[in-house]
């Protein structure tokens, strides 16, 4: 893919095996991931598992729904696709090691897009020492990316179901920035640039999951679909209620600016935004929160019949809480 | 999903979490798979790995390309999606244990289709004691299914690259039946029924991979894209040539009938057909082939410059050899 002509080649031009061959070169040139005995190219990858437990997660991204090719370049989309799966492993208190990608795409998609996507994907994986070990490509009407991440836990995985009344709720990582960036892009703007970049290249706190698990987190989730929505998942899985205190959040200046420009309450980006992949966890009240974690609420008993699982400043919240995939 | 009204509900009607909840019920009611500590519903599944090596494979199926909803019911499509991934693990000499599914689908897809798909998928997994442990759903313009299978090998995995000159080439399982069924459906017919059923519900020889590995197979692949195409993959990965002897094949009566009706050489279904997921392997010449395996050719030295990797009856073959995904 070095000549000008090659750069214009479509997937149909290079063909399935041409594409796979070029993807394999990119993968071979980046971090292979530890303990990969056989990488892409055979019927299956062969991996050496050192620990007794593995954690596995799958996420789907669809063009026009989770990304737009005119809003982010292919490497950014690749990095985001990796990030959201690496983040799921992070949220278990684990460390991702190996990923596979199922890519469906139109025949007229520039092959360079798929290669740049792969490069961005592999770069993001390399941040945690993980590698792309396999996948499949097929023709479809729109780009659909399905990523599976496999990781290892050195401590017991932290589930959604362990929160107990009296625990504190805390988050780690930027929250609301990506949602602010998405709002900016949706209005046809490109600034504040820091928010647009936050949307294009999230920076999940990849080291925070293991540290939280070791510190004694009782429940943990990554905020991919909205802070209140994810708090609701933890509350429901744990059979508790959660109250979020808005005074906990310092609304960053760029979000204030977007709020002013769009007439939206900037706090809504924080409460309902997802794509930053911050972590939300609960800790026993006597645990000193690890560095980087901020207390944002408390865990209460199961709500009364008909009462909400999640409240904001002690009251029902009637704004959007997150993202629905249908 | 028991009332008539519910059966007509779309994915948009039931919503993402409604769909996931119902899928989880189906998964819980079928074989969970061994060593699943945490199944669907958290950020990741948690699995106990008993052996030191795991094998991982991902395959994509796209509506209109790999299946049509009017040619096979949802449970059949689900079974096929599982089968092609279970077969990849089989082709390594391994046994599949855990699978995840990324499902992208239009909002107006009947939710019942997704549930029946899941049921067929889980039933196929149960044939080998594997379980569905996670996944994701999202909205898209067409149905795209990406499946990842994770398995274990008790012997060294059999790669594509181990064939040596002098080895014999053998296959195990029905071959050409599904391609015949597809040709029938493509002409608007529904018989011979045995071929249409072979296309809708392949019956891969799931026990054959481990047995071949234990018997000393030097290379192995599952025939998902066409016998000659897959033989070519083995020949290229191994740096050898392969000659296939057509006299090895007994063309079954239903394929003869379809050949007569369509004017096609029925041997082409066998040489270029894929979806049966038969296994192709090479064995040292002094190995007695395990039960169910049929010798179909021989491995030779690397071909001369410009000569084909794979020949049929000692000569170049100019018919289709398999399936291209772009």
From TrEMBL, chains A, B:
Pathway the protein contributes to: Cofactor biosynthesis; thiamine diphosphate biosynthesis; thiamine diphosphate from thiamine phosphate: step 1/1
GO molecular function, one term: kinase activity
Enzyme Commission code: 2.7.4.16
Reaction equation(s) it catalyzes: thiamine phosphate + ATP = thiamine diphosphate + ADP
Statement: the UniProt record of this protein carries the keyword 4Fe-4S: no
Alphabetically ordered keywords of this record: ATP-binding, Kinase, Magnesium, Metal-binding, Nucleotide-binding, Thiamine biosynthesis, Transferase
Binding site for Mg(2+) 3: 43, 88, 222
Pfam families referenced in this protein's UniProt entry, alphabetically: AIRS (PF00586), AIRS_C (PF02769)
Binding sites annotated in the UniProt record for substrate: 66, 275, 323
Residues noted as binding Mg(2+) 2 in the record, renumbered to the chain: 59, 88
Organism domain of life: Bacteria
Annotated residues for binding of Mg(2+) 5: 225
Family, per entry: Belongs to the thiamine-monophosphate kinase family.
Additional detail: Reaction mechanism of ThiL seems to utilize a direct, inline transfer of the gamma-phosphate of ATP to TMP rather than a phosphorylated enzyme intermediate.
Role, per record: Catalyzes the ATP-dependent phosphorylation of thiamine-monophosphate (TMP) to form thiamine-pyrophosphate (TPP), the active form of vitamin B1.
Protein name: Thiamine-monophosphate kinase
Biological source species: Nocardioides aromaticivorans
